[in-house]
Write the structure tokens for this entry.
Amino acid sequence: MKIFTEKLHAQYSQVFKLSKIVVKEKSSYQKILIFDNEVFGRVLALDDIIQITEKDHHAYTEMLVHFPIIANKSIRKVLIIGGGDGAIASEILKHRQIEKIVLCEIDKRVIDLSKKYLRKINFNSLTNPKINIVIDDAANYINSDLTKGYFDLIIVDRPDPIGPGNKLFKINFYKDLKNIISKKGTIVFQTGVPFFQKKELKETSKKLNNIFRYSGTYHTVVPTYIGGHMTLSWASDAKDLNKKINIRETNIYLKKIITNYYTPEIHNSSLDLPLWIKKLSEFN
């Protein structure tokens, strides 16, 4: 029996039975593994860390996308940092008012393989003409010749803060993002599984609180992101996303949008954090 063991935490791991190995290679940046599993369907792992699965990604991608767009209806131009599997782009495309989507991914090989092998996850979003794919290091791209205040939403689907990805957690990165977000805009980040990654949430919360007028944390649960609650953090100078949304109005809006996880009730409940997570994320 062939198995895959995730190597993220030194004291705890998860093991997957491999029904089929679809891709196993090394790009210029990382090891890439795409495999099938009887429970989770198609799975993408980068450098031996699970990134996304066919069966449970909705709890992550839908909350990264629909939460900020529903809470801030003025969003028209979106930047995705990371997200080379195309799942986040697929969710954004469900909102017809979005005019422009830029996806910045450092590894072109991830894009190419996702187009071919992850179509049940991204629904061909990476070939949609509305998506402008930029192959570049995110820290470099946001310091390039971008118009100040251009984007209304920035979704930072960053890796864990190890190796080269660590610079996406530095104070200058957040300041650079503030420079390219519009005055009415919102930025959302993945901030890890706090049971194992307390420092990631705590330090991000502190930095966002120091740079932006409003910031906060909400949560979801993704089975393959081991450790229980997965936290997502947001920041804005214009809007307080800690406020609950109107359920009736949101249900009317969602009539034309198919979701598997997100509902207005889930939106509101995601703001109700377990006490120990709330303590990690509070700096007001």
